[in-house]
Amino acid sequence: MRLRPHRPTSRRSLADDQADQLAVLAAGGDQKAFEQLCAGLVDDIWRYCWSLTGDRDLADDATQETFARATTAIARYRGDAPVRMWLVVLARRSLGATIEATRRAPVPTEPDTVAVADHSLPVEVAALVEALPPDQRQAFVLTQVLGFDYATAAEILEVPIGTVRSRIFRARDALVRAWTHTDTHPTTQEVTS
Fold it and tell me: Are residues 22 and 83 in the same domain?
């Protein structure tokens, strides 16, 4: 099965309970359930891969690698954690192989800050989120886009929950400043974790 993640759509992802039910069926060998699971979570996984890389093409590659690995790993899925979290962890592990395979480096730690000059023009929110430092972008996407609670995000990122809260606070602050055009240069404190 070949997924074409190539940019998320506006469709909602599967609810956790529905995804978990499909995962149990898929782990038992139900190919149709696996296909439904993948189709229902591909946008979430793409968004997470993008939050790690800041690169849309690399997120496409990492998402594809994640689901390629999931085709064999799903048989070992035990249901100890929600399948969406299981796939996010698998995506995180798959990303290193994807980066090495494409021989690209991850996003620099000090991205340019995006400012909105004219509020009458449409703004692509993704561009504002893309400008966040990688650690803030990851925490923001996990909690504000994918809907993981802070404790789950902390587990995925392997950091204390306070670190996730801090990163979300700084990300929101940077997004507001970019939107209101009050600060076009990140401070040293904002760029570091």
Answer: yes
Among 125-134, 167-176, 179-188, the minimum mean pLDDT is found in 179-188
Residue 105 CB contacts under 8 Å (≥ 6 apart), including other chains: 99
Burial group, residue 23, by CB count within 10 angstroms (0-12, 13-18, 19+): buried
- Residue 126: CB partners within 8 Å, gap ≥ 6? none
Q: Is residue 96 domain-shared with residue 129, that is, in the same domain?
A: no
Task: Enter the tokens of residue 10.
Answer: 């506006």
* Token output for 179: 């939107």
Domain carrying residue 187: 125-191
3-class secondary-structure state, position 182? coil
pLDDT one-digit tens code per residue, 57-71: 888 888 998 999 999
Q: Which amino acid, residue 61? A: D
Residue for token digits 């970019």? 178
In terms of domains, do 91 and 146 share one?
A: no
Q: Poorest-confidence range of 5-9, 103-107, 114-118?
A: 114-118
